[in-house]
Amino acid sequence: MIVALIIACEVAFWILLLGGLSLRYLARMPRTGAAVLLCEPLLEVVLLVVTVIDLRNGAAPDWKHGLAAVYIGFTVAMGHRVITYMDVRFAHRYADGPPPVRPPKYGMARAVHEWKTAARWILACGIAAGLLQGAVWFVGESGDVTSLRSWQFKMGVVAVINVVIAGSYTLFPKRGVEEGATAVPTASPEAGAGAQAGSGERWGSR
């Protein structure tokens, strides 16, 4: 049941997102669209309540309960970013809004972007790990929490990977062509022809 509910929450998330943005920009009903978008946090609340009830009714904690905690953590941390991403593109396409701003590609600006991305992932992992710890305390010492601990370890690994990626952009910033390469002068066709003519004159003078 937990897995089916997670899938249903994901499907409902996209239905609410696309429906809310369509109401805002296509139907020209911004307040109604905003109200629909505000319903999305209720999905995480429903999933959390159902998961707690399932554990309270004596279900053995397993990977499904851990997956529910991870899903909630990532949806809470990343959901607003996804909504903003889609909102900007809907506004640009259907409401003459400004074009989406692409992330920087080079230098420290790229490193800052990577650290912001890593911060969102770390926040998601932290929320998930906190929910998993809450489940461990809820189950108590009498239950088998091996699966929940395994999910916590995975969240730690994901957080470390993101720190390593962001750190690599800081220590070894990506350089653009204009920064990383020294321009090598190349002779134009006219210059090449002139050089050949000059060479011929020199040989001819002998």
Automatic annotation (TrEMBL):
UniProt key word Iron: no
Residue ranges with Low complexity bias: 191-200
Presence of the UniProt keyword Flavoprotein in the record: no
Region (Disordered): 182-206
Entry's transmembrane regions: 6-27, 34-53, 65-83, 118-139, 151-172
UniProt keywords, alphabetically: Membrane, Transmembrane, Transmembrane helix
Name this polypeptide is given: Putative membrane protein
Higher taxonomy: Bacteria, Bacillati, Actinomycetota, Actinomycetes, Kitasatosporales
